[in-house]
Design brief:
The complex is a heterodimer of chains A (391) and B (185). Chain A is of the alpha+beta class and 391 residues long. Chain A is built from 17 helices and 8 strands. The radius of gyration of chain A is 22 Å and the shape is globular. The N and C termini of chain A lie far apart (53 Å). In chain A, 50% of the residues are buried. With 185 residues, chain B is α/β, with parallel strands linked by helices. Chain B has 3 helices and 7 strands; from the N terminus they run αββαββββαβ. In chain B, strands 1-2-5-4-3 form a 5-stranded mixed β-sheet. In chain B, strands 6-7 form a two-stranded parallel sheet. In chain B, a hairpin with a 7-residue loop joins β1 and β2. The longest helix of chain B is centred in the N-terminal third of the chain and has 15 residues. The termini of chain B are far apart. The chains are: A alpha+beta (391), B alpha/beta (185). At the A-B interface, α1, α3, α8, β6 and β7 of A face β3 and α3 of B.
């Protein structure tokens, strides 16, 4: 008897529970091994770039929440910094420090969601529950500050919307005190776990040269042994004043990326501690800038402030005629905004450099030669979000 | 931080020596305390060679393509391709702008940077610029049977994709019908 063998095409997604959204992958299988694959994105396309061309600069801030909805604070910060650079203004020191606190909390929360779902996909249910317990604390902190639990809309052009609430510092300090112990718990559950190691070690290899050539960023790039972090290379919001390390790993596999992200959470805690210690006093938003709306009290009492507020809300601000790219280090990678400003209140063009979009394009290279079951592990280690990828 | 200006000036000088007539414009952007970003405009004929020269730049190769995109300038030539290239070793980046016409295909840079894979497909998807030499060239974000290119400035903001009753045939392409019930002041 002869058994016929040939390559088989399999369609995975877009409703597969482990694709973290609406990713469809077309897999070409040779037995149980992947010969070729092609990711298909775009199911969540909402036309953000077209929307941005038709609205005022400040109106786009809530839309950035919907990019990477796991780490909305970071997206807000990234967009607002791009516009601030365009206008040539800088937020007050206290606002910058608050933004750093928020974005580092966002990084920890995003990495916790990544760890939870990554472990759940591979089969470790416990980790999921533990991670969401800690994430809840962070979300409570965000809720105290901004009033929302998921899409915060907290940063403003020239600062942040509100000052920190009373008791925030104590709550944050409490969280930072217990966090290393919790991180140790995750390490105990996974790092030396034999099943975890055999599922992740040597899987989804992306070498250093490939990583750079494919343009991947964030923990995926650092997991391939490239020491690159926007916070160090092009510092923003005063990151040059904080002392932290860039974790890298030379293993270039899923396990390496896991270790990098785990270490990043520890580094984020270090930054948070320093930010808490040196949190400056003062205003949280620029006051005399022509681009920033006055405070509510002033609008209600002063005629000129009311006029300024009306003009900014209806006509928008007159920006310099310039082209600019500004990027920040988000939990998923490098989120950048390329803005072409023509001097009117709306951007002439706004391109969002989404880290997930580029990271997904590198996936076929990682999958080639691996087993079908490893697709889930690789997807988990790339940690993408489709709000951002499809925009 | 080391002197940004000198490194970038040396890069541009190196390119000028290789292809004397390729670079038409060099712009240095400085806004507030922003780092100086250099932008060079390159003729389309030389674009691929200039990008290749940047990738092989001896002092520290620009080996990381941050993104590629296009801008609908509404002038002649209509589009402007934008490549932002970074050297990880030197922590420097340079923007290369290439004005391209509506109907001429462009050489793909996939062979230089695989990062251009999705970006070039997106440029085609949104602007309709065709790239030669791309291994898997088709739409990416929009459905494959979609009509038109959404990020062009004349693309209508409102309407039904399956019928053009929203559009006024007498007006230039893409304009919406004027509502009959608008009360003029």
């Amino acid at each position: 008897m002869s058994i016929e063998s040939r390559e088989m095409l399999i369609n995975m997604g877009p409703q597969h529970p482990s694709t973290h959204g609406v990713l469809r992958i077309i897999l070409k299988l040779n037995g149980e091994k992947i010969a070729a694959s092609e990711p298909d994105v775009g199911y969540l396309h909402r036309g953000f770039e077209k929307l941005a061309e038709n609205m005022l600069y400040h109106q786009f801030i809530p839309y950035t929440d919907r990019l990477d909805y796991i780490a909305s604070m970071n997206n807000n910060q990234s967009y607002v910094i791009a516009v601030e650079k365009l206008l040539g203004i800088e937020a007050p020191p206290r606002a910058q420090a608050i933004r750093v606190i928020m974005s580092e909390l966002g990084r920890i929360s995003s990495h916790l969601v990544w760890l939870a779902t990554h472990a759940l996909d591979i089969g470790a249910m416990t980790v999921f529950l533990y991670c969401f317990r800690e994430r809840e604390t962070i979300i409570d902190l965000f809720e105290e500050t901004s009033g929302n639990r998921l899409n915060y809309n907290y940063s403003r052009i020239g600062g942040v919307a509100f000052d920190l609430p009373e008791g925030f510092k104590d709550n944050l300090r409490k969280f930072l005190d217990i966090f290393p112990e919790k991180l140790g718990e995750y390490h105990r559950l996974l790092t030396k776990n034999r099943i975890w190691m055999s599922r992740t070690k040597g899987v989804g290899i992306l070498t250093r040269e490939q990583a750079i050539n494919w343009g991947v960023s964030g923990p995926v790039l650092r997991g391939s042994g490239v020491k690159w972090d926007i916070r160090k290379a092009f510092p923003y919001d005063g990151y040059e004043n904080y002392d932290f390390d860039i974790p890298t790993d030379d293993a270039c596999d899923v396990y390496g990326r896991y270790l990098v992200r785990m270490e990043e959470m520890r580094q984020s805690r270090r930054i948070l501690q320093q930010a808490l210690k040196h949190l400056p006093d003062g205003k949280v938003i620029l006051e005399d800038s022509p681009y920033v709306s006055p405070s509510k009290e002033k609008i209600m009492t002063e005629n000129f402030s009311l006029m300024k507020h009306m003009v900014l809300t209806i006509k928008g601000m007159h920006t310099p005629i310039a082209t600019l790219y500004s990027a920040t280090e988000n939990p998923k990678g490098e989120l950048g905004f390329y803005i072409v400003a023509d001097g009117s209140g709306k951007p002439y063009k706004l391109k969002i450099r989404a880290p997930s979009f580029i990271n997904i394009s590198a996936m076929p290279t990682m999958l080639r030669g691996n087993y079908l079951a490893d697709v889930i592990a690789v997807i988990g280690s790339l940690d993408f979000v489709f709000g951002e990828s499809d925009r | 931080m080391p002197d940004t200006g000198n490194v970038m000036a040396r890069t541009v000088e190196y390119l000028r020596k290789l292809y004397p007539s390729a670079i038409t414009e060099v712009e240095r952007l400085r806004l507030g305390r922003v780092r100086r970003d250099w932008t060079i405009s390159v003729k389309q004929f030389y674009a691929y060679r200039i990008l290749k020269a940047l990738k092989d730049y001896p002092e520290g190769n620009y080996d990381f393509l941050v993104f590629a995109t296009a801008v609908d300038t509404q002038k002649d030539p209509r589009f402007k391709l934008v490549y932002l290239i970074r050297s990880i070793k030197m922590a420097r980046q340079i923007t290369v702008e290439v004005p391209v016409a509506d109907d001429l295909p462009v050489q793909s840079v996939y062979e230089l940077w695989h990062a251009a894979d999705f970006d070039e497909r997106e440029i085609y998807d949104m602007y309709g610029i065709v790239f030669n030499g791309h291994p898997n060239f088709k739409r990416i974000l929009m459905p494959e049977d979609w009509d038109g290119f959404p990020l062009r400035k004349d693309y209508p903001l409102k309407g039904n994709q399956f019928s053009n009753t929203y559009l006024d045939r007498k007006l230039p392409k893409g304009q919406l019908k004027q509502s009959k019930h608008v009360r003029m002041p």
